[in-house]
Amino acid sequence: MPHAGTLHINHLHKQYEVKGRALPVLEDISLTIAPGEFVSIVGASGCGKSTLLRLIAGLEDDYRGEIHVDGQRIVGTSLQRGIVFQEHRLFPWLTVAQNVSLALLNRNLSHTDKRRTVQSHIELVGLTGFENAFPHQLSGGMSQRVAIARALVTRPDILLLDEPFGALDAMTRAHLQQELRRIWQAEGITMILVTHDVEEAVFLGDRVVVMEPRPGRIRRFLPVDLPHPRDRASTAFARVRDGVLREFAEQRDSVHIADSREVLSH
After folding, report:
1. Fold of the CATH domain 1-80+157-233
2. Which parts of the sequence belong to the ABC transporter domain (predicted)?
3. What is the mean pLDDT of the chain?
4. 171-204 pLDDT tens trace
């Protein structure tokens, strides 16, 4: 049955201490994501995309502002917020089925129910027949499928994806983007994708959040009003993609102007 969470971020600020000095990483981030929505977050390196995802996951808690899921403040990690990283992080000594079932260790389920749940999620990511394979016997794309199955097997309300296809070749990446779209539609959950790939962001997202750096903040929200499945070669797709790319061009121009003013002032 479809299940999803509502994420509400209000005036979020985050900084790190570097050599005794405060380094602002995120500044005044406010964002609401509706149940079942797929939001893509793009931005140059250093704009705090991955830090934002880690805060939503509950991997860090030193921040100012509010992060709530379904009205509850995030405190620590939770199985209701699954996360997939760029590296699959599978345990090499465990099989595919064992890696996926690991997320269910603390669930009060019978052995039969666990086995059935694991099998259904292996089927969901298209790996039927590989249940007893070990990670070294899988391709990079297959390993990421296992990581996605492991993140989904607990039936989370929100799935967080941090550059999940960044290390894959172009053909595998395009195929897994299609698979992720299928899984999202089948599961009906909220998904948040961090990516450097503008085309990927537009292909998958209901909205694209464009961030800018120094410190990281939201520059623009861009809706993607295109039906699924999306045609990357269509004029409508190109129009949305180019609109996102223009934001980056304007961002670079504004940074260059600011840098020039700073040099002149000195």
Report:
1. Rossmann fold (3.40.50)
2. 7-238
3. 91
4. 999 999 999 999 999 999 999 999 999 999 999 9
CB-facing half-sphere around the CA of 65: CA atoms within 13 A: 20
Torsion of CA 104, 108, 111, 114, to 10 degrees: -40
**Residue for token pair 């020039």:** 260
Question: Distance between CA 130 and CA 266 in Å, rounded?
Answer: 62
Give this prediction's pTM: 0.91
Beta carbons of 252 and 260 less than 8 angstroms apart: no
* Amino acid 258: pLDDT: 43
Assess whether the previous peptide bond of 35 is cis (omega < 30° from 0).
Answer: no
- What is the domain partition of the chain in residue ranges? 1-80+157-233, 91-155
Residue where the block lists tokens 């509706």: 34
Written as six digits, the tokens of 117 are 């749940």
Could you tell me the CA-to-CA distances from 3 to 96, 155, 190, 212, 233 in Å, in that order? Answer: 25, 8, 8, 32, 32
**Residues in the chain where the model's pLDDT stays below 50:** 1, 256-266
Task: Quote the CA–CA distance of 171 and 32 in Å, as a whole number.
Answer: 33
